[in-house]
């Protein structure tokens, strides 16, 4: 049901240690969805293909929410 899906998302918490334990290190930072924050922390990292594998070429970059939030709300 819709309520069960909502409950599942609101209780899905994957911190960086759990992400690594799942074998997804560097794929995404973390997931912690709440009713008032369904976007997560918004961090991104960049990877580059070297001809044989993906290579992480940046650290985790956090968004500038003070700059972005007004743009998002206006759209």
Task: Tell me what the structure shows.
It is a single chain. This protein is α+β, with helices and mostly antiparallel strands and 75 residues long. The chain has one domain. The protein contains 3 helices and 4 strands, in the order H-E-H-E-E-E-H. The chain has helices at residues 2-10, 16-21, 65-74; strands at residues 13-14, 31-32, 47-49, 54-56. Strands 1-2 form a two-stranded antiparallel sheet. The protein has a two-stranded antiparallel ribbon with strand order 3-4. A hairpin with a 4-residue loop joins strand 3 and strand 4. It is flat. This is ABC transporter permease.
Brief overview, please?
The protein has 75 residues and is of the alpha+beta class. It has helices at residues 2-10, 16-21, 65-74; strands spanning 13-14, 31-32, 47-49, 54-56. This is ABC transporter permease.
Coarse shape? flat
Tell me the strand percentage band. 5-15%
Mean pLDDT, as a whole number? 88
The largest sheet has its strands arranged as: 1-2
Q: Work out the helix count.
A: 3
Radius of gyration: 15 Å
Secondary-structure element series: HEHEEEH
Distance between the termini: 31 Å
Q: What is the share of helical residues?
A: 25-40%
Low-confidence stretches: none
Structural class by secondary-structure content: alpha+beta
How many strand elements? 4
Number of domains: 1
Question: What is the makeup of the main sheet?
Answer: 2 strands, antiparallel
């Amino acid at each position: 049901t819709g309520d069960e899906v909502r409950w599942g998302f609101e209780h899905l918490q994957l911190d960086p240690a759990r992400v690594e334990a799942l074998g997804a290190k560097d794929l995404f930072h973390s997931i912690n969805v709440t009713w008032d924050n369904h976007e997560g922390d918004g961090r991104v990292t960049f990877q580059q293909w070297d001809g044989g594998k993906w290579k992480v070429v940046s650290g985790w970059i956090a968004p500038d929410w003070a700059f972005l939030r007004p743009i998002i709300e206006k759209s």
